[in-house]
Structure formats: structure tokens, C-alpha cells
Specification:
The protein is of the alpha/beta class and 216 residues long. It has a single domain, classed as P-loop containing nucleotide triphosphate hydrolases (Rossmann fold). α2 runs parallel beside α5. 38% of the residues are buried. Belongs to the small GTPase superfamily. Rho family. One of its GO terms (molecular function) is GTP binding. Keywords: GTP-binding, Lipoprotein, Nucleotide-binding.
Length: 216
């Protein structure tokens, strides 16, 4: 097995879109139902990706304006960004292009961005929209349109609560990495959508998460 290399993965997006829940769900396989912190503690884990060990560093950021001056300090050394918006919040969707892309391109030009639509479980929840008449659902087509607009190679929709599409999207898009001779920290993610079959195997004894995939 080849030596490990480090990938820093930073989540960004408006406050309350579910970034912290997304990271807690991934790292603990549980969805927080009580207290959810504003920012998730940085997390580091070794994962096996196609026979190679990758040290994955997960960094959370706060989207509120109060953190505008401090947040960019987390961007240094980032290998990939997870740019999240809520599938039940038009404002967070619009802020991807209005706020987050300009900020990321200013502080971290050239770093790949994975666009993530969160709270997938609520988009088709009729009771939610009855209780929140001002909420506007974002369709998959709108997400793809935004992906093209910002130049992101990948768009995924997921639910941290049900973990629908979660491991498939997050792990596949973040960790199926080919070395880039021009920028060793920059994952090439455009080819990821070509995978037909993804298999995940837990290797708890070794303290690793293992991934393999069958390509077409």
C-alpha cells in the first residue's frame, strides 16, 4: 500500500444550510438531534482510496457575516472545497454565485469546488412546506445549472439525516483523486461521475475506511 498524502477538505456555505451536520453525520454515522455546534471541530482520518492511504482533513467554517474576516484563514492549503447550499433555501442557493464563489476565487484561486445541495429529505416533504410557506425548493435541474455557472465539475444532493446519496457523493467526489503534476493538492474530480458501481467497506480494526469502485 502506497504512502499516505494529505488532503484538506474545507466546507463553506451560508449559515444553517447543514454543513456541520454533514460532517458530524460522516464522522459519526449519526445525525445530531439535540445540540448542533456552530462549527464542527476539525477532523482528520486515514482512508484507503483504491489501495492508497489518504489522510483526509475535514475543516468546517461558519457562514455568518460575523466570521467574514476570520473564515478565509481556513482556506490556506485547501485541496478541495465543499460548497453547500440548502435545497429548501433559495437565498442560500443564490448566495453560492453572489457571495461564495467570489470569496473562494479571491482567497483560493484554482482549488476545485464540489457543489453540494443539502437537506434532500425535506425537498419532497409536503408537511415541511406547509409549516414553512416561505420556503422554496431547489430542483436538481437548478442545481446543475448552478454547477455549470460556477464551473464546478461535480454537483451532488444529499441528506445528512437519512444519509441518502451521502457516502456516494461525499466520499466519491472528495477522494477519488488523480495526482495533478501542476498542483498536487488539487484533485481532478471531473472523471468521478464515470463510476458505475461504488463499494464501501468498513475496516474498523485498522482504523481506516476503505473504498473501491468498478469503472466502465
Amino acid at each position: 500500500m502506497s504512502a499516505s498524502r494529505f488532503i484538506k477538505c474545507v466546507t463553506v456555505g451560508d449559515g444553517a444550510v447543514g454543513k456541520t451536520c454533514m460532517l458530524i453525520s460522516y464522522t459519526s454515522n449519526t445525525f445530531p438531534t439535540d445540540y448542533v455546534p456552530t462549527v464542527f471541530d476539525n477532523f482528520s482520518a486515514n482512508v484507503v482510496v483504491d489501495g492508497s492511504i489518504v489522510n483526509l482533513g475535514l475543516w468546517d467554517t461558519a457562514g455568518q457575516e460575523d466570521y467574514n474576516r476570520l473564515r478565509p484563514l481556513s482556506y490556506r492549503g485547501a485541496g478541495v472545497f465543499l460548497l453547500a447550499f440548502s435545497l429548501i433555501s433559495k437565498a442560500s442557493y443564490e448566495n453560492v454565485a453572489k457571495k461564495w464563489i467570489p470569496e473562494l476565487r479571491h482567497y483560493a484561486p484554482g482549488v476545485p469546488i464540489i457543489l453540494v445541495g443539502t437537506k434532500l429529505d425535506l425537498r419532497d416533504d409536503k408537511q415541511f412546506f406547509i409549516d414553512h410557506p416561505g420556503a422554496v425548493p431547489i430542483t436538481t435541474a437548478q442545481g446543475e445549472e448552478l454547477r455549470k455557472l460556477i464551473g464546478a465539475p461535480v454537483y451532488i444532493e444529499c441528506s445528512s439525516k437519512t444519509q441518502q446519496n451521502y457516502l456516494l457523493g461525499f466520499m466519491q467526489d472528495s477522494l477519488l483523486i488523480d495526482p495533478d503534476p501542476d498542483n498536487p493538492l488539487a484533485p481532478k474530480v471531473a472523471h468521478m461521475c464515470q463510476a458505475d458501481k461504488i463499494k464501501y467497506e468498513s475496516t474498523a480494526r485498522a482504523g481506516l475506511k476503505s473504498m473501491s469502485w468498478d469503472r466502465p
